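Customer escalation, tier 2.

The customer says the design service returned an amino acid string that "doesn't look like it belongs to this structure." They asked us to rerun it and document both sides in this ticket. The original structure tokens are below, unchanged.
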């Protein structure tokens, strides 16, 4: 996905989080996940964990082996299997531990260190004090998702709260949550007065959102949506990269990406079942050709 985005735009990319414990254990699978192509730069590797020494060592190893342009600490993931081990958003419940993790990691690496958090665990105002903990511990940047852990992805991202938190620190703050269009980017920046935006779910099946948002910020004009031909072409390119990395079975995990790419395309219902059950690149290309014929392309 990162390589696909970089063929269209040049945002700073935050990679999927990897386990600090797995990095320190030398897990080949985890280290492969932390690898990247030079074309993906600038890129930031995200880590999760709860032990300060392990997190620091993992950050040092990642910097030494993969040499990303930055390291990010995940203190915002709401998923139970993460928080049940006191990782992710659970760290917001223990500011002292969070501070120790940040300080240890900052001392272990040379590249910038950022932290992603949520509005809070259960109270959305928790971030107001927590951002100061993060800044005082030495972080260079904070990303704030405007929901609590307890909300998960229900309700709305509280951009107003993000803005209030951003006012309390002097380091850069990125706003995150409910940003799916270039118009959302403009509205979020206006509502929060943050230094930037981190787009997550809004990029799924939509790698054009980065270039279109940048264009709107520069011109004030909403850029046109990519044409169907472009959407299908980029989807196939993405699929080929995905399978090249994960092997032939990777096409199965790519099905979710297909669903995102074709969402909203007129006539897609006629091939939806086939798209959701593709088992090879050839099968995907056949369904793409069917979609093209439906639109007389």
């Amino acid at each position: 996905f990162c390589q696909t985005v970089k063929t269209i735009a040049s945002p700073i990319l935050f990679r999927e989080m990897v386990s600090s414990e797995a990095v320190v254990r030398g897990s080949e699978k985890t280290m492969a996940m932390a690898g990247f192509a030079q074309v993906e730069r600038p890129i930031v590797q995200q880590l999760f964990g709860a032990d300060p020494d392990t997190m620091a060592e993992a950050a040092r190893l990642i910097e030494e082996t993969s040499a990303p342009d930055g390291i990010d600490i995940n203190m915002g993931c709401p998923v139970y299997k993460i928080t049940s081990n006191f990782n992710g958003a659970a760290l917001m419940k223990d500011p002292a531990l969070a501070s120790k993790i940040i300080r240890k990691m900052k001392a272990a690496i040379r590249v910038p260190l950022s932290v992603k958090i949520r509005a809070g665990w259960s109270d959305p105002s928790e971030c107001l004090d927590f951002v100061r903990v993060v800044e005082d511990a030495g972080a260079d940047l904070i990303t704030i998702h405007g929901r609590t852990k307890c909300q998960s992805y229900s309700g709305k991202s509280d951009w107003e709260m993000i803005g209030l938190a951003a006012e309390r620190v002097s380091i850069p703050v990125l706003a995150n949550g409910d940003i799916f269009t270039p118009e959302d980017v403009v509205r979020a920046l206006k509502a929060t007065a943050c230094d930037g935006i981190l787009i997550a779910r809004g990029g799924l099946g939509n790698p054009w959102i980065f270039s279109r948002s940048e264009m709107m910020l520069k011109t004030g004009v909403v850029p046109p949506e990519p044409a169907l031909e472009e959407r299908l072409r980029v989807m196939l390119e993405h699929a080929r990269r995905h399978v090249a990395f994960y092997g032939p079975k990777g096409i199965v995990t790519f099905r979710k990406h297909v669903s995102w790419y074709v969402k909203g395309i007129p006539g897609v219902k006629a091939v939806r079942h086939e798209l959701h059950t593709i088992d090879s690149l050839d099968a995907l290309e056949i369904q793409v050709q069917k979609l093209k014929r439906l639109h007389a392309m």
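Tier 2 assessment: The sequence is consistent with the input. The chain has 14 helices and eight strands. The first strand starts at residue 13 and ends at 14. Sent an explanation to the customer and offered a walkthrough call.
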